[in-house]
Amino acid sequence: MKFFRSLLAKYMLIIILAISIVQISYLGVAIFVLGITKTGTGDFSSGVLVESDIEEQWHAQAKNMTNATDDAITQLFQKWQEQFPTASMFWVSEEGNLLTTWNVKDQLPAKWTPAYTTQFIKERYGDDPFTVIAFLGDDISNGFIVLEIPRVAFNPPLIKVYDNYGNFLFFGVIAVILFFIVVSLLFFKGIRKRLLHLQEAMEIRDVDGLPIEIQVKKRDEIGQLEHSFNRMVCELRDSKQRQQKEEQLRRELIANLSHDLRTPLTKVRAQSYTISKEALSEEGKQALKAMDTSIVNIDALIENLMSYTLLMASKYKFEPKDINVIRFVREHLTTWYPVFEREGFTIDIELQSFEPVEWRVDPLWLGRVFDNIFQNVLRHANSGKYISVKTESTACYTAFIVEDHGQGMKNESNAKGAGIGLSIVDVMIKGMHLEWDIHSDHSGTKIIIKKSAKLEK
Amino acid sequence: MIRILYIEDEKEIGQWVSKELTERGYDVTWLESGEGLEQHINSKDIAILDVMLPGLDGFSLGKRIKRENKDLPILMLSARTAVEDKIEGLHFADDYLTKPFHPDELVARLEVLLRRYQKSDDVLTLQHLKIDTKDMQIINTIDEEEILLTGKQFYLLQYFIRHLNQILTKEQLYEGVWGESYIEGDKTLMVHIRYLREKIEINPAKPMIIETIRGIGYRVKQ
Question: What values do phi and psi take at A146, rounded to 5?
């Protein structure tokens, strides 16, 4: 990724811009201040006033004043006034008389006693206004002159600028900050919008249950993230296809295996059928009948074995839907009825409608469950010659009950293989969130397949 | 005579089925693959196909046959028993029988298909009734009188005959004859069956033709 395309670069640009704006604004203020001072409106004297300089000047000029007349002093005061408009000045003679005053606002005594003079000096020392006292000429005979300048005049020019143009500067700074905030906001809003878009895209699912690839518009960090996401979707799709292919192969293998086992079985059936048409002894007929039963049993066993293998590997197709289960079982019984009838069973069917009549199951699975149970009745409980299929409905569950009068499961009949058939029943029933119970004793077996009402909720 | 086209690559099974069907009065043409199918197909009444065949498999052959001969019933006879295979087969075929099978079952299924496609020229005999399945003329053999049925009774009996020897539930019958979904507790079907029995049974109180299968439905057995 090129650095200049990155979000980092963009953000750094914004920061640099913000810092530059601050710097430029300082420069602007400096130029502004300089501009004001250059135009020289009296309020702002150039440069910074230094107290010691003023003190020195005042002392020097007082010392040079050899001719201490009223006019000369007034002239001096006038000159200073021009330089310091806020300054006030006055002259006190050797005897303590207040002589010339200039711009004096405070009440001053006409006669300066030594005590007052001392108090004045003490009060003004280091205080506001800034006060300089200097003797006129070389000796003290001409008295002294006093200069008072308010301390404000000594403030640097920038403070004066703030005082005068404060609001303007304040709003300027606010505007700069706002500008920075707005730019940052737009920047992050852009990022946020794209992240949300990415999140949305991650949640949408295609028909195959996988997320949809997204269009990458920019090549920054989020763009890279989108790229990675797309790559991940591709990998997921590949893996799913691979899995489906494996599943397909496994099913194919099992189907072929089952086919290859059934073909010779069919040949055995063909041979036995051909033999059955010959004139046979009673023993021969018995043997053929046993052979036929074995063929049917092996067929069922192959089927169960294949189903069990697929079930255990979770490769057996499962597509649950809501079905009217009474109707389903009744229609399923139409194919089993003639089989039991042929075997001379007493068949007792009582399917009363219950609520809720819809169960969420895979019809092929439920059909298989009943097939296995009926097959077991046919093979292992044939001696009882009885089967009943009934419904039961209580507050807690709705159920189907299959009952036979065989010898029970403990006294297994000669035909083995009930185990795998019932294992399939068990896996399928649990897979469909149903429950089942077996009650078996020497007088028969009762199998209850039920759907709990709690689960329904 | 019903002419059957039978495709099966396993020699032993092929010979056995051909012999068995021939003995039962069918005219069987047995091929070991789909090769040469075209020259036979137009002159046949029904086709029996295996799935695993050299060259084109039974599914492809069946689809091709069905595309060109819509009125030719096809029965798949295969050792492939997976649900997926059955479903694929039943997309175009009319029935799917798995191996190992009993020849009686094969013949019964063939007969159902032939009746459904109205290819069996047999006159059906049910107890004392003689029914011409082509124009559904019903003769009472006791007095040689023709029994006349109303529209619904006629369709009901026809539906039973099309599903001869099969148990039909109330729902299946109602939906098959009336073409609407059955509502639990509806007595219409029972009323019609009673009327039908009054017309065709010798003793409607002890029906011999339309059998009641308690808890499931009805059956007409030959």
Answer: -120, 135
